[in-house]
Amino acid sequence: MSYFDAASSAPLHPVARQALLASLDEGWADPARLYREGRRARMLLDAAREAAAEAVGCRPDELTFTSSGTRAVHTGMAGALAGRRRVGRHLIVSAVEHSSVLHSAEDWETAGGAVTTVAVDRTGAVAVEAYETAVRPDTALACLQSANHEVGTEQPVAAVAEVCRAAGVPLLVDAAQTLGWAAVAGPWSLLTASAHKWGGPSGVGLLAVRKGVRFAAQGPVDERESGRAAGFENLPAIVAAAASLRAVRAEAAQEAVRLRELTERIRARVPQLVADVEVVGDPVRRLPGVVTFSCLYVDGETLLHELDRAGFSVSSGSSCTSSTLTPSHVLRAMGVLSEGNVRVSLPAGTPAEEVERFLSVLPGAVAVVREKLGAPVPVTVRERDALVVNALGKRCPIPVIELAKVIGDVQVGATVRVLSDDEAARLDIPAWCEMRGQEYVGEEAAENGTAYLIRRLS
Amino acid sequence: MSYFDAASSAPLHPVARQALLASLDEGWADPARLYREGRRARMLLDAAREAAAEAVGCRPDELTFTSSGTRAVHTGMAGALAGRRRVGRHLIVSAVEHSSVLHSAEDWETAGGAVTTVAVDRTGAVAVEAYETAVRPDTALACLQSANHEVGTEQPVAAVAEVCRAAGVPLLVDAAQTLGWAAVAGPWSLLTASAHKWGGPSGVGLLAVRKGVRFAAQGPVDERESGRAAGFENLPAIVAAAASLRAVRAEAAQEAVRLRELTERIRARVPQLVADVEVVGDPVRRLPGVVTFSCLYVDGETLLHELDRAGFSVSSGSSCTSSTLTPSHVLRAMGVLSEGNVRVSLPAGTPAEEVERFLSVLPGAVAVVREKLGAPVPVTVRERDALVVNALGKRCPIPVIELAKVIGDVQVGATVRVLSDDEAARLDIPAWCEMRGQEYVGEEAAENGTAYLIRRLS
């Protein structure tokens, strides 16, 4: 079994395991107590905080251990927004943030706050200027991930942090995908991360709040963790988190080069091995271990199932795997093909042979799915002026498959009208047109759905 | 070293350790994923939920794993109060709840809610009738602990739950101190608990919400744990929590009898071995392993330090150990002596010999502290009509020590006036009068503090 989904959760690092075991016997007591067991727990907690703070690049008293990365984001955003309530109620986020950031933003909007969502380009990156433009006199907080979790694109956090500092606005950086690789550069104000993303245990998140940042913790008072993370400290796991962060950092520079070569190979080979594939995300400014691509005429869930059967665990931002049946907000914001989406995220230590085996298995897996779905094979051109494809009630990728089947049936210059009520079609039909060199004319409301107009160009 | 502070945090149960180790290798992946590692994690999570639900006495889909008991209380109270906002904004809590409940109540009051605090008797128990009286047409939620964490007194939760059900008000039971011993009886609506209190790992709390209870989770949306506990599941710890709960339950009946004998012996022997001691809490309806007593003329922190030096880890609700320098809210609500307070809470498996050793060490430790503080020894009676003791600026237990030193200096029927600005004096001077058979006349405002009037009766 090859586990290629480290961006969801990394397997436990050996150092994390060792530290966890060692502190199970020493770290179960209440670090707030003054007796021997309590003092011992307090020493472990203090040492873990110092180690983690050094890796983050902040002071120990600026760092809080939370119960998860999501909780760190929720607490960090709520506290920073409340702390700057006098300044205003305006929040800036990028369109491709983790759901914990976007859900906090929704919550803030529901409570009467204003939110500006900064768009990304086709690689998934924000423009520094877009944050500059978004800042207003009443901006209380800006948020930006250090790198995107779905496509691996690195964001210009240092430059955005400078822009924010110049404007006097605190920037919260969600560093969940990068903290294991390096500290976040630039004058950020708040930072969040999650231990199980770098090979630490679950149950531990980090929230750093720089001195001088106005912060008002929300919810019931609690004395632990500077009042920023209620409840008994998850101590053995905290020790394991800090120890493994230090360990992965020691290996990071070398391992990043190696993984980058492996993902570079996937980026290069997949489009050669599989027809009709779009590799997405920035080709250069990206995470070492993440590569994402989408396959035309493929249902993401079925493809994941095929790859699982072949021994590969990957994930997908495809419309067809999500519980809500809408394409991932990241792919949508980038405007790239979402169907048949596959994210490969290699854990540290992945052998090159496993990647080679993946490349040898992928074409067959895609072919199986395409065959099941009746994906198009070249057809004879017939003369007709216009054609309507009724794909109402059919889910992604069927509308695109139907379109591809008939595009050759109309004359060059004529149009095909695809009727669909599937949200993914709005993204995938234009993406197909771009991949195929056909013209996407636009959409219009139709009975029971939307009509998408495509003009045949070649 | 004898660890006698299980009510704060119990040492890790061997089964918890085994289960944690076993699931470290199987339970690190995201249980929401469909590939092999994800399915395996999902199976572990489902099995843990079933086991824990059985122990709680609820359906698995009524049970959520949170990151701590405190978090379970915060989430449970906020969700239940929000879910019944249309009914009203009235909340009932007892005066001796855990700080997580009382802090949630404060938060609710700050947000415009109304709170009724139900008083307790001298044993620390609420009266069922008091809840009956407190319920109003606009009561959204009532909260009651199953047993008190500081003095071990069991609360009449089943009867209070019946009263609440009859009134159509949900009852949240904080079962942190009892879930390892037994399921909570009665028709409760919500229940919270904390794994590290029963020998499970830290980082895991339980929140049960019965079907039919209106519940509106607060804060940003998150899909995990039925939307009631944001963030990646703390899976290996959850598995360990469930396994150890099952294990401690299997041993509970027998171990409860054994620990009850040990604490009964402490209850009986301490007043024989140490002069001027008040054992507090209900003598019969109490937790098996908890016994609490207060020692006159003793500074709690110094006594804890002496006991720590002698190899015993205990805790204290004494005014002198808390960071805020006020007596524990529990002892205050009970109206018992707070100075020199010691809580002994025996972990399962405590050998009888350790208890005997504690009893042999305690008198000397108390004597050392009393000598340090210059506690009174019998003095010659002298004739005087009234006496003023100026204890301004002196901390507990000095005011009571000064009072005890001079009470013999006035005639029977005459009064002593103690000036003090220490909050603990308000509780400890009346408690001393009761223990000593002297009359506590009352208090009045005085310059820079309060004057406490005591009439000598014997």
UniProtKB/TrEMBL annotation, chains A, B:
<dbReference type="InterPro" id="IPR015422">
    <property type="entry name" value="PyrdxlP-dep_Trfase_small"/>
</dbReference>
<keyword id="KW-0479">Metal-binding</keyword>
<dbReference type="InterPro" id="IPR015421">
    <property type="entry name" value="PyrdxlP-dep_Trfase_major"/>
</dbReference>
<dbReference type="Pfam" id="PF01206">
    <property type="entry name" value="TusA"/>
</dbReference>
<keyword id="KW-0408">Iron</keyword>
<keyword id="KW-0032">Aminotransferase</keyword>
<dbReference type="GO" id="GO:0046872">
    <property type="term" value="F:metal ion binding"/>
</dbReference>
<dbReference type="InterPro" id="IPR015424">
    <property type="entry name" value="PyrdxlP-dep_Trfase"/>
</dbReference>
<dbReference type="InterPro" id="IPR001455">
    <property type="entry name" value="TusA-like"/>
</dbReference>
<dbReference type="InterPro" id="IPR016454">
    <property type="entry name" value="Cysteine_dSase"/>
</dbReference>
<feature type="domain" description="UPF0033">
    <location>
        <begin position="389"/>
        <end position="413"/>
    </location>
</feature>
<keyword id="KW-0808">Transferase</keyword>
<keyword id="KW-0411">Iron-sulfur</keyword>
<dbReference type="GO" id="GO:0008483">
    <property type="term" value="F:transaminase activity"/>
</dbReference>
<dbReference type="GO" id="GO:0031071">
    <property type="term" value="F:cysteine desulfurase activity"/>
</dbReference>
<keyword id="KW-0663">Pyridoxal phosphate</keyword>
<protein>
    <submittedName>
        <fullName>Aminotransferase</fullName>
    </submittedName>
</protein>
<dbReference type="InterPro" id="IPR000192">
    <property type="entry name" value="Aminotrans_V_dom"/>
</dbReference>
<dbReference type="Pfam" id="PF00266">
    <property type="entry name" value="Aminotran_5"/>
</dbReference>
<dbReference type="InterPro" id="IPR036868">
    <property type="entry name" value="TusA-like_sf"/>
</dbReference>
<dbReference type="GO" id="GO:0051536">
    <property type="term" value="F:iron-sulfur cluster binding"/>
</dbReference>
<comment type="similarity">
    <text>Belongs to the class-V pyridoxal-phosphate-dependent aminotransferase family. NifS/IscS subfamily.</text>
</comment>
